[in-house]
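Incident log entry.

Two folding requests arrived from the same account within the same minute. Monitoring flagged them as a possible duplicate submission, but the sequences differ. Recording both here for audit purposes.

Request one:
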Amino acid sequence: MVQKSQSTLFNCFLRTSKSLFVENVQNEQILVYASCSFSATRFCLFTPALFSSPSHFLFSSGSFVVSSVPKPLSLARSSSEESKTRRSLTQSTNRAQMSSSTLNNNIAIKKMHVVIVHPEQWNGGSDRCTVALIRHFVSQGHRVTWLTTMIDEYWKNHTFDGVEIREVGLKLHPGDWWSQNVALGWHMVFSNLNPDVAIIDHSASCVPMIKWRFPQCKILFYCHFPQQLVTPSRFFLYRWYAKLIGIVEEELFGQIDQIFVNSNFTATQFCKVMPNIEKSKVRVVYPPCDIDFIVTASEKPVSRAERAKNNVYTFLSMNRFWPEKRLDIIVEAAAILKRRGYTNLHVQLAGSVMPHIPESRIYYDLLQDITKELDVTDMVTFIPSPTDKVKFQLYQQCDTALYTPPNEHFGIVPIEALDQRRPVIVCDSGGPAETVLEDITGTKIAKPCGELLADAMLHHMNKTDWPELDTEEGYAKQRQRLETEFSTRGFCGNIDRAIAEMMGDLAINSEESSLEPVETIVHQPVATETFAKPYQQKNAAHIRRAQA
């Protein structure tokens, strides 16, 4: 019987692998989760007719293994209305962008269990969103569980008091946005968790599992950018894979209760990729830039007029060393200005070099080679992986910040630079086009081009003052704008409002709400020595293994 069932499953795999659509098998539905890599392909098949429970197998080198899961999964898609007009999206956005003070005064949320699903904790904007959410919910007295597949060493000295961290290793597919959330979803299925709210990012692949295992759980998805569009220049097989997965993912997004996007640009792209998702579900909520922390970390921001003038005009780029960030045009612009006879400038290229990702190190080395080839080593300095303290010192020392990625999803660097009272040069696309005001707080170039950037840099060198940043009155106005639209308080207030609307009058785990927050650190054994100690709370924390 088992061999017959396995044969049937394998035949189903052969048919469904061509389309990755939901098919009917013996009048029952079968859903295929696909997660491809060069080494193997992982599939999760849910077959109510053939098994009394969902089944999972790994197909690699012509073999596969079937294992059972406790309960069947309902594949019924939640009903959705016809696509609404852009006005609906705008109205949702306006509701989400109320002032943070109003949000905090009007919302009272019962104590609940919040699970945050965020794979791969690096040191980017999405990772800082996760940290902001964790600290916010803990400060409100909620029980918080954080599921992740890895935590970068950047966070090794950070403490996360009152949060249960479950680091679920996934050695088969490192870096893959689809399978990691599948693994985290399976961990939730077999865990002792009982969440009221799940906050997810990166991929919706775990949504059906959460909805099946925890039907009372409300799901909020924060979309930093549609994953199908994140790396359009990658190998064609990856693009093919991402497109097919996107077809399945649109079905999964229909089951999510609320979707946040990080900018109007991302909202537009999301609606193009997911045209059948109800527009009323989508809201624009800018990611948090912890304004209060910036002031604490860097003391009071000082304008260029108040500090000693630099010997040469200093430009600062603060960005990850990654090909899509287009840092190469900064080196090119420096070479162009040098050829024009402008040598009274210096460029600092600072940012994270991610040792676990080959593209980051390769691009970092490539930029150094370009700098030598263009003979601008005397004008360009590389500062890899600066600490937060060094980062804000660099902001204070520079005259203008550079942010060159085109179609950036949001971009927190311009916010940090503006808060430090420095003008910014950005590409006129994506999130930065919404945060930088032309010739008021910075300059926008039409596209990532060395010639255009060189012209903009020369404009900044010749511009003597920026009243909205240099004067106290102007800066107070900009500071108010930053606090209203981009602060951590406003971001968390919008999250609270969305949760309150989703929960309605639903009772929230009255039994569990009285429990003390669980202080458990969960790590793979290999990571215990390097990561466990920094993450331990002030009280002794129990460390145990997370089974993926």
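Request two (distinct sequence, not a duplicate):
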Amino acid sequence: MTTSSPTTLVPTDPFALVGVRLDGKYDVHSVVAEGGFGVVYRGTHRTLQKPVAIKVLKTPPSLPDASRKAFIDKFVFEARTIARLEHPGIVRILDFGGGLLPAGGAAPWIVLEWIDGHTLDDALAARRHHGGQSPADALALLRPVFDALAVAHDEGVAHRDLKPANIMLARTRQGIEPKLLDFGIAKSMSDDESAPSGATATRTELRAYTPAYAASEQIGSTRTGPWTDVHALALLLTEVLTDQAPIRGDDSTALTVDALSPLRPTPAKFGLDVGPWEPILARALALRPAERFQHAREFLQALDATSPVSATWRPSARWSSHATGPDPSAVTTPRASAPLAPVAVASHPTSPAPSSSHAWITLVALALVSLASVIFLLQSRSTHAPSQATAPAPALPAPPPTYAAAPPPALPTPVLPTPVALADASTPPTPQRTIPARPTRPTTRPAAPLRPALREHVPVE
């Protein structure tokens, strides 16, 4: 199995292009990187004096002539396809050439826009052990990659070697913009789309993928496509969220075993609760390609559907950029779901139950001071009781029936002249004292701690 990681080889100049002028237009200055299937040079457009990247395809010498021609033809076809995409998240192809090289031999080459920046792989390595990103920040970082792949998938093109090393974080006037490298090149080194599911590739030596980001169909040499990119996208998102490599192993065999494990590398596997994103990522990381999202846009839409939840999620100290080390106790389910509770409480901010109990206590006190004041208060109270009885009904369904039944006996009390009548008038408040609104206070008191939690999360927005 051959991988396309640029770190597998020490950069050399196998085509002897450094110091020469390619195709009469490009001055080649240095070797930038070398992989299993190509060498990338830095150059300058002679007329425009603009920096460019030149990638020369390395054709495996073991290929017979017929296969070599088919390999190069497919490379040309893919280059044309990617040039047609014209997406800001995909490194642009500026030129294409081939034929004899100045030092001898023949090979196809493409000229790409030069990207000033560093790879996502470099960025993740620099931040390792400093904490992952929040869901909102992680998706904001990778959204251009999702968008670029969605456009490619619309055209029937898949990357098939998606990994942090193939994502450049370009420094532009607008800020940092992710751009995909080697887009489409991996497809030209893979099986035909028409290959039946489960078929063994006839050119397995040309398959280009990285074991740490490979899907089961790549490992098993079966049909690949947009669903393969979906799997790699989910691995990338998990890595940005957790600050940990999703697939681990000391060699290709160990990586393959971990990649095919039934325990999928979702954030939950690493102790991070991302709420509704967990089942979405589990689907994207399914071992069976048919069970995954079949398109990058479909995957992104599922994540966006939970964006209000992900926007209120806040990482614990473990995920802060200033954290010094992991804090397992801080990574709990309530941390991810806590912001949902204040939202629900805030939608029902008022409850008149406490003021209602206070009114009854005042009524009893006035009855002890003056029976006449009690009668007067009950008369004035009867005009307000219905509104107070209906207000707390949504939150406290039990008290209203007794509360509403109390005022009717109090209505005739003003026309009764005898002390017996006063005693009858005082009878209704007595049972109401046994159903005070005090039980309603515990209902409101638990809501109080939620407000600080809301303040804890909202200012970080």
